[in-house]
Design goal:
The chain is built from 13 helices and no strands. By secondary structure, the chain is mainly alpha-helical. Helix 4 runs antiparallel to helix 10 and helix 10 runs antiparallel to helix 13. It is globular, with a radius of gyration of 22 Å. Its main location: membrane.
């Protein structure tokens, strides 16, 4: 029975990863179009090239999109991490009133369809005359990324020994000192993991930026969408392959931080 389950899981993973086995090799094509040439199928070395990676790294539009993605992603991740940590701390305390209501409210951006959120943000930012500004995009990405940070950090706090906070208060430490010297060192890996996943959420967003972003705020996903509409080329596959590599790195780092947070929680207990 266990062997059958493992086989089904393996087949499911292969099915999900199958598009990657098509996209990644094709991103190294030496041709101009998105199809496998007979030379590529014959594994001719001359049919493969890194020209499209060089084209992406040397293109002004792609570099502008990369700069915007990094700047907006880091800004949204920083805000999301701060807000997510505060929210997770509040939701993890036993004495918090209406805990279920606040948790549901915080997680709404992950439940409500993204088009509805984008339309609401567009309406709000239009009244504030913020459409086409970095401020609007960063706030919007923070709204989408903060729930991810809350989920990650709160999961770590579920195993946190709150008796340590009580002991610190008994010894005369104030709330800020206790948080900085007792709570924060124990949940720091979870906070870092939350920041990483918040950055990944911002990097992947493509719908909201269509509503509230201008030319100066276009990101990598938006530039990919423009490329699919206007000038389809293997450069898009090169960018997609780099994003896949980044996503794999995020998963590995996130898993490492998760295990480290669990180790810290066990030691504190």
């Amino acid at each position: 029975m266990k062997l059958a389950i493992r086989i089904w899981v393996l087949l499911g993973l292969v099915f999900l990863a199958l598009p990657l086995f098509v996209i990644i090799p094709l991103s190294f094509t030496a041709g101009q179009y998105l199809f496998y040439t007979p030379e590529m199928l014959a594994l001719d070395p001359n049919a493969y090239s890194t020209r499209w990676y060089a084209a992406v790294l040397g293109d002004r539009e792609w570099m502008l999109a990369l700069k915007n993605s990094v700047f907006i992603g880091l800004s949204a991740a920083a805000l999301s991490t701060v807000l997510g940590t505060l929210a997770a701390l509040g939701l993890s305390r036993s004495g918090t009133p209406l805990k279920s209501f606040w948790a549901a409210l915080i997680l709404l951006p992950q439940i409500v369809p993204i088009v509805i959120i984008a339309g609401g943000l567009y309406s709000a930012f239009s009244d504030l005359k913020l459409i086409g500004t970095y401020t609007a995009v960063i706030i919007a990405h923070t709204v989408l990324a903060a729930p991810v940070a809350v989920i990650t950090i709160r999961a770590s706090l579920q195993r946190f020994d709150w008796r340590l906070v009580s002991a610190s208060a008994t010894l005369g430490a104030g709330p800020f000192y206790t948080f900085w010297n007792v709570t924060l060192p124990l949940i720091r890996p979870a906070i870092l993991a939350g920041a990483i996943f918040a950055f990944a959420t911002s990097l992947d967003e493509v719908v909201v930026i269509q509503f509230i972003g201008g030319y100066d705020q276009k990101t990598i996903p938006r530039e990919m969408l423009i490329g699919l509409r206007e000038h389809l080329s293997p450069a898009i596959l090169a960018v997609a392959t780099m994003l896949v590599g980044f996503a794999v790195l995020i998963l590995i780092l996130g898993e490492f931080l998760r295990r480290r947070a669990e180790s810290y929680a066990r030691k504190s207990t």
